Amino acid sequence: MEKAFLELIEAAKRCAVNDPLVRQQNIDFYRDELYSEADEISSAIDAKDYALLKEKLGDLLWDVLLVTLIAEREGHLKTNDMLLQAIEKIKKNKPYAFEGKDSSLEEASNSADDEPDDTA
Length: 120
Prior knowledge:
The protein is mostly helical. About 80% of the residues lie in helices and about 0% in strands. It has 2 domains: about 1-75, MazG-like (Helix Hairpins, Orthogonal Bundle); about 80-120, no CATH class. The protein is built from 7 helices and no strands.
């Protein structure tokens, strides 16, 4: 999985630089793409169409990578800082994920209850 993920990241980086259509897009364009892919993922789950789910999760991952690279290009974020922030948040909310140990259902439930609502 690690090799495939790194290959996808490298392809997204090349695409962000070499693809004229991607170079002319901004994060506003990809916002609509993200909504569309998320909706298709939801539909695949509802239909229990796991082949489509696999495809659409890949599409969403690709779009997330492109949004990240475009947002960095536009000066909105640094990818490494975003990743470090995500790691810190997950470490705070789900420390067991970084400790290499199983968590109890109670511990996982408490972590989910402690997560801040980012929609506010």
